[in-house]
Design brief:
The protein is mainly alpha-helical and 407 residues long. 61% of the residues lie in helices and 3% in strands. It has a two-stranded antiparallel sheet with strand order 1-2. The protein has a two-stranded antiparallel sheet with strand order 3-4.
């Protein structure tokens, strides 16, 4: 069998989509251009999603890889520098927590005889934040996370498909044994459990409550993935101030160009103490980080699902759960959802998506709560398995070229 990736919908073995091999996954991850690598990862997730969906005898909805297609495609916007960062920057200087920190700075500066007001501080903010650097740092962090997750998750799916091609049960047992024991980030017990459930959905007659079992498997992979991604996501959303000390230096350089006020600050430092102005600048840095994360989550971070629905990660997911996932019966699923407040029960016997929006995307529990509602709400949406690119674009991506036009 060739190791060249198959096209979207390319028939193999009587119409069965082949997915990817482990070798193909590694080749995609090894793509040096981060933009092209993201495009190849997105297409790779699609091919794996289709192959896994075809293998499941009980097919109650989309597998984790179908959701990963659209998350990877959305990450591509940041990697290509297409996100509207100016919106977040413009709101940042007016955020209540930043305004409060500005007031404290004005008081501290005037105590040193420095004439400064709120308007001047707001005008200085864009010059001290380095917005272009913010974009570059976020893109780099997300590109690294995108590749690292695909190597692990794509490789696991490729190995699963290979084990399923072997009729001997020993092949699947060997596949399960390849996962590391323990919880993430170091262990892979969630992945072992998830693929065991996928296997059960593959084997007739299948388990009871198949839609819930699929959701549980998807969530187990999602929990593992999000814990593994935490360092890169934290780096991306904190890219506005990766070095608070450098920010302090730039801001104070504008406020203390010389003279006795600057000398007084230096004397405080020589005594091993932070001046009131230093303390105020540090408090401003923390306020900026908090405000930026929240506004980034609310205004910039979105997810487009197959062109059917566009979600803002900081807002509640709209609409009801599908009938098969409204009232949950599988205890393991209810336990996992309960861990991060995602049972979706707005009252006794009243399931819903209220409270699903994440105020701060860096917060792991908030992120997982949103993802759990996302999976549950849209698991049965058939468009999730639609191709992420046109046939021409997909062919160009497989040939190692960036497609022309809108992606």
């Amino acid at each position: 069998m060739s190791d060249a990736p198959t096209g979207s919908g390319a028939p193999v073995r009587g119409g069965e989509p082949r997915g990817l091999s482990r070798r193909e996954v590694d080749a995609i991850v090894g793509t040096p251009d981060p933009v092209l690598r993201n495009l190849r990862i997105t297409q790779g997730y699609h091919e794996l999603a289709r192959a896994l969906s075809h293998r499941l005898v009980q097919r109650p909805g989309a597998n984790w890889y179908a959701f990963a297609v659209w998350a990877s495609k959305q990450a591509g916007q940041t990697i290509r520098g297409e996100d509207p960062w100016r919106v977040a920057e413009q709101e940042l200087a007016l955020a209540p927590e930043v305004t409060g920190a500005f007031r404290t700075m004005v008081i501290a500066a005037r105590g040193l005889g420095i004439r400064v007001d709120m308007a001047r501080l707001r005008a200085l903010l864009p010059r001290t934040l380095d917005l272009e650097g913010v974009q570059a740092r976020s893109a780099d962090a997300l590109a690294r996370g995108n590749a690292r997750v695909f190597q692990e998750m794509g490789g696991a799916a490729a190995d699963f498909l290979q084990s399923e091609a072997d009729p001997a049960s020993e092949a699947f047992l060997s596949f399960l044994a390849s996962f590391r024991d323990g919880a993430p980030p170091g262990g892979q017990e969630y992945l072992r459990q998830a693929f065991t459930r996928y296997r059960a959905l593959r084997t007739p007659p299948g388990p009871p409550h198949p839609a819930e079992q699929l959701l549980l498997a998807n969530l187990e992979i999602g929990v593992h993935e999000q814990i593994r991604l935490q360092p890169e996501l934290a780096e991306a959303v904190n890219s506005v101030l990766p070095d608070p000390e450098a920010f302090r230096g730039r801001l104070l350089a504008h406020l203390l160009p010389g003279g006795w006020a600057g000398a007084r600050v230096r004397v405080w430092r020589m005594l091993g103490r932070a001046s009131p102005l230093d303390q105020a600048v540090d408090a401003l840095a923390q306020a900026i980080r908090r405000a930026f994360r929240r506004r980034l989550t609310r205004r910039v971070m979105t997810m487009d699902l197959a062109g059917v629905v566009t979600l803002r990660l900081g807002e509640d997911i709209p609409g009801p759960f599908p009938d098969g996932l409204t009232h949950l019966e599988v205890p393991e699923l209810r336990t996992l959802l309960g861990r991060f407040g995602a049972l979706g029960e707005t009252g006794p016997g009243v399931p819903g998506t209220a409270g699903s929006g994440a105020r701060d995307w860096e917060d792991l529990d908030q992120r997982l709560r949103f993802i759990a509602h996302l999976f549950r709400r849209y698991q049965e949406m058939p468009e999730l398995l639609a191709p992420p690119f046109t046939p021409t674009q997909a062919e160009e991506i497989r040939e190692g070229r960036r497609p022309q036009g809108r992606l």
